[in-house]
Amino acid sequence: MAGRHPLQRLASPSRQLSMILHLAGIASFSASFQFLNGWETPMSASFGGHYQFLTILGLSLAQCTFVVGFLADITLSPQLFRLKNILSVCSAPLEVLISILYWGLCAIDKSLVFPPESQLDFLPDFGFHAAPAVFLATDLLLLSPPWTVNAYSALALSEVLAFSYWFWVEYCFSHNGWYPYPIFGILSTWQRALLFTFSASLMTGSTMLLKWTYGKVNGVGEFKREAVTDPTGIRKRE
């Protein structure tokens, strides 16, 4: 078993709990993809297919993160472990964002994210829109070293992802004539710009929240204070 980072709650990479968690996550994500392959909708035959959904792009990144983590567990490779942690900086906040946006909009009106004929039963709905965030957050809090990313870096990453996705959505719209999420069709262009800007800010906030929670769970006071009082990392550099 490889030794864990001194600020890390449990050993990882390892062939014990870490490998079990990564296998469970891979099984959950694979089951969601299996469901997707058999789910015939107008979206599946359109340009971009199901990959027009941010949910599916996030699920793909989550799958990649956990596959790399599982390979690190098997080989006890520190290089693969570092790669898993790099991917996690992107995938974990993204999945938290997806969960917040999806369940928040569903609480308002589920037809904003799914037309009535395409709405999911609870189990696949949970698999797509909650399980990835739960698995990735658990991996971060218990099986990963602390993140060193500050708010400026997190915001830059979030903006790149948000506006790259917006470009992809508009490109698919130019081929299909409709958006994957009904809410995009309701909003004007400037309102969509505000939505994506808000989403980037929310993803930044989820990054700092995960960093603060890591400090809380693992008793690392420095990361709790930094996430709240010095999220940009300016004071630390001074």
Short description:
The protein is built from ten helices and no strands. With 238 residues, the protein is an all-alpha fold. The protein has helices at 17-37, 54-75, 78-109, 122-129, 131-143, 151-176, 182-186, 189-218, 221-229, 234-237.
First CA to last CA: what distance? 38 Å
**Percentage of β-strand residues:** under 5%
Mean pLDDT, rounded to whole units?
89
* Order of SSEs: HHHHHHHHHH
Multimeric organization: single chain
Global Rg: 19 Å
- Fraction of helical residues: over 70%
Task: Count up the helices.
Answer: 10
| Largest β-sheet summary | none
What structural class do the secondary elements suggest? Answer: mainly alpha
The low-confidence runs, each spanning 5 or more residues with pLDDT under 50, are 227-238
Q: How many extended strands?
A: 0
Shape: globular
Q: How would you sum up this structure, described in words?
A:
Helices cover 71% and strands 0% of the residues. The chain has 238 residues and is mostly helical. Helix 1 (17-37) packs antiparallel against helix 5 (131-143) and helix 3 (78-109) runs antiparallel to helix 5 (131-143). The longest helix is centred in the middle third of the chain and has 32 residues, at 78-109. It is globular. The model is unreliable at 227-238 (pLDDT under 50).
Task: For the structure shown, list the relevant keywords.
238 residues; mainly alpha; 0% strand; disordered C terminus
